[in-house]
Amino acid sequence: MSKREDSVKTNMFMGASTKQGYEIAEKSRKIVKSIIGNKTKDLSYEERSIVERIVHSTADPEYADITKMSKDFVEASLRSIRDEKDILTDINMVKTGINKYPGLVKCYINNDRAVSIAKAENITRAAAAIKVAAEEGFDGMVVIGNAPTALLKALELVKNGELNVTSIIGVPVGFVGAAESKKALQSAEIPYLVTEGPKGGTPVAVAVANSIINLKRSDIK
Question: Which of 9, 29, 56, 199 is the catalytic position?
């Protein structure tokens, strides 16, 4: 890959679409690389692109230290996106942030069935929404940016053979259950990306999902 192709593709990852946007993205990219380059040098091109986008989106270099991916995460996720399988998110903010994907991005947190299940089973609506997705026959990439209970429910349903997933982006944020749910994901036999500890959230989840979508659009194999 030439330096020019690398620059153009990286700018696409950061969302630039105009000359000024490209210039800003390129400057941001250089700053990010100068800060975290020594921490990502052993990653693949695709993995570096994802981590750089997270750091760019959050302005937090610590994500270069706490972002962990299984060896099969990129391949599994890109295959899912290329096949235009559905994407499932835990909340609507994450769904709204995922753009330029020709497939369906789904979120069931406001679904009437999810509300009923949450009340009947005394579980969070986010967890109930994952259960509804399983009932609807979901098959694709799961993106969890906020609710540890949603991640744990997804893992439970996968283990029980009730939910089909190609990979999971597990970056719930918070001090209650977030770190534990990510550790559970890392122990499961599912292609994953996590941010260890309490950090994460919508911006991180969206950054990872859009980075993968842009990797596919850029035809990087």
Answer: 56
Higher pLDDT, 187 or 6: 187
* pLDDT for 10 beyond 60: no
What is the C-alpha separation between 55 and 63, in angstroms, rounded? 6
- H helix intervals, the chain: 3-13, 19-40, 45-58, 63-66, 73-82, 92-97, 112-121, 125-135, 148-159, 178-187, 202-217
Which whole number is the average pLDDT over 51-72? 96
- In this structure, what DSSP letter does residue 18 have? S
Spell out the domains of the chain, with CATH numbers in brackets.
62-217 (3.40.50.10230)
End-to-end CA distance of the chain: 11
CB-based contact 84:102 (threshold 8 Å): yes
The dihedrals phi and psi of 193, each to the nearest 5 degrees, come to: -130, 130
| Token couple for 11 | 């700018």
Question: How is residue 34 written in tokens?
Answer: 């100068």
| 56 classed as catalytic | yes
**Euclidean distance between CA atoms 47 and 19, whole angstroms:** 26
Cα 186 to Cα 125: distance, rounded to the nearest angstrom: 24
